[in-house]
Design goal:
Layout lengths: L1 H10 L3 H42 L8 H6 L6 H14 L7 H27 L3 H32 L4 H57 L6
Helix pairs in contact: 2-6, 2-7, 4-5, 4-7, 5-7, 6-7
Length: 226
Amino acid sequence: MQNIAIFNLLAHMGVEGYAILALLASLSVLSVAIALQKWREIHERDASDEAFLDAMASVRRFEDLVGAVARTRGSGLRSLAEAALVEDENMRIDAAEPEGAEVRGQLIQEACERAAEEEYIRLEARLPWLVVAAGSGPFLGLLGTVWGIMDAFFRIGKEASAGLNVVAPGIAEALLTTLAGLLVAIPAAGAHQLLSGRMRRLEGEHVLFASRLGSLYRRASLPGAR
């Protein structure tokens, strides 16, 4: 019976209600698609990082990093290691000098941090749309509510009656758009919080790994390290 009532409301809803529901449906589809895409990207990143950390288990010197990169595929931590190797090839400071080794280690760490920031920016792309859906959904629903109440009062004036058969349809349509707005906003807000938390954790893991690579390079320059 409730489904029949909802279908009846949809069948007799005005153009304005249809327009608001269409906007909410578009936001819902967009937010679900983005959330699923980001979860897939993070899952793939986690799998890539796990494989690379397994390869890193045998790395004892900075030079061994080449083998770990060659044996694995993907992005994430591996892209940071690639950035460290590229920076090592491009630097021209004499590693034999203690000051030069320290500077080189710092440059390698900074190269890793830049690569980590690029990874974070790629992961964060399109994520703000979840904020848009979470923030706009209730307000679009509220707009439909206000419009429906205005329509209910218009019907009261037109019919010169305040009976339930005159007022109830407009109020029901108004509440339907409110419900739709909340159904769009709540999942989008939850998905954004979960994804943001997971991405902050990834960012922290990348920063720690960048520091680890910088220390690995500096350790190689210590006396007797080779």
